[in-house]
Amino acid sequence: MGTDNQTWVREFILLGLSSDWNTQVSLFVLFSVMYLVTVLGNFLIVLLIRLDSRLHTPMYFFLTNLSIVDVSYATSIVPQMLVHFLAERKGIPPVSCAAQLFFSLGLGGIEFVLLAVMAYDRYVAVCDPLRYSVIMHGGLCARLAVTSWVSGSVNSLLQTTITFQLPMCTNKYIDHISCELLAVVRLACVDKSSNEVAIMVSSIVLLMTPFCLVLLSYIKIISTILKIRSTEGREKAFHTCASHLTVVVLCYGMAIFTYVQPSSSPSVLQEKLVSVFYAILMPVLNPLIYSQK
User: Fold this and answer.
1) Distance set, CA 169 to CA 5, 91, 121, 172 (Å)
2) Kind and range of the H or E element at 286?
3) Which stretches of the chain drop beneath a pLDDT of 70?
4) CATH topology assigned to domain 12-291
């Protein structure tokens, strides 16, 4: 058969954002600063929540989880990208590529579920404030957080496993900034329709389902707010949800644009920019957005 020599690629080459040296140096400086801001900003949020007993509430518990996810997601992609900006050969071993795909995909899934959990928390806070502490007790919050982490990790493990079982033949050039799911699947030299179906199912389970739950929560929240007679009461209720709603629009919007229809996905450049958005911009913006509350 002679397929063994074709199936296993010893090293993948990431093409990155640009091949121009000056552009790569500029991006290295810019992304280095943004990564440091990401780590520092999210670390300060977690530290502040830990030290201030007034912030020991369900919302800030979930925000702590979100900050950890943001830093971890950025760390799964950005350091390697920074190294490649200054490296002549931008290679990554298959094992490292698989690990990067697993962690980035898993952490992304965890964030989507966490945002849905936080939407439920905001729904209870606005629509049933008198029973908030009874409903959102510590046990429930812990179970919801664990569900987020487990669901994202299991999905990522399944997707990574089936993706790296695909024969890559001699294809080793990944036209992306990292080992991103769609970019790796494109390397396969066999029919990829089953993988596209798996990506579609995953998108429905871990993206569209949480999104629909968020949408339902905010329909009920808005309906409740509109029934509040006082202007001050309405503003306070809107302010309670404003930070989370902003993050939801940014996060889900980009993901739905990229993953819901992989067979008719946007251009490679657009995919790269979306990945930069999630790895660089969102982890920086989240602390800024939530600190406004």
Assistant:
1) 8, 17, 48, 8
2) helix 282-290
3) 1-9, 170, 257-266, 291-293
4) Rhopdopsin 7-helix transmembrane proteins (1.20.1070)
